[in-house]
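Suppose a colleague, Dr. K., hands you the sequence of a protein chain of 210 amino acids and asks what its three-dimensional shape might be. Before reaching for any lab equipment, you can write down a predicted structure in token form. Begin with the sequence itself:
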Amino acid sequence: MIRTMASVAVLLTAGVALAAPGDSWILPIDRLDGSFTILTGAGYGGSNAVQGTGIDGVRRVWWAMGNQPGMPATKELFTVEFFVPLQGPLNWQPIETANVGEAEGAMNAVIPWAGQWGTNHMWLGSENGTRGTWKSTGPGPQAPVDATYTAAGNGIYVWLDKDASLYAKWNFGWDIDRAWSALRVTQITPEPASALLLLLGAPLLRRRSH
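The predicted structure, expressed as tokens, is then:
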């Protein structure tokens, strides 16, 4: 169906909600791969936290962006915080991104960042924190420092959208003893004209200066 700009304007004034910079979402744990110890009531808002220990190529904690209403459809820059559980160890562990179509160590053309030497898989470091509060993640060498296309790494941001997930994994060459609860993600960049593009049926393209 062909839509005119006038019809788009009517639709926009009718109340198309857009995510905006500064919007935050709390992501509860979405699913678990492998075995975990349940820490009853130690998580955000009285939910259960989970604890994983050791070296395990299967064990992962997942958080899903798309389970929360209003998530942007376009790739936007986010900061990530973690809720510090009331119980359990808080050793260093990265939080990694899982964007649709992305494999670790491979490029995903939809992610508007080319600064990480042939890959735009991103992760942020996390550890410690005051129990019962939110703690910021980062830096991470595979995370951009800003929104430019060729941004340097070792930043505190990640590119995400409604189809993305985040996860923490245990398949490293050292023991990890760590408890997890909810994440809080905050949008940093705007959604320029994304409503118009969606309503017109145009591809969602983002141009970045080189």
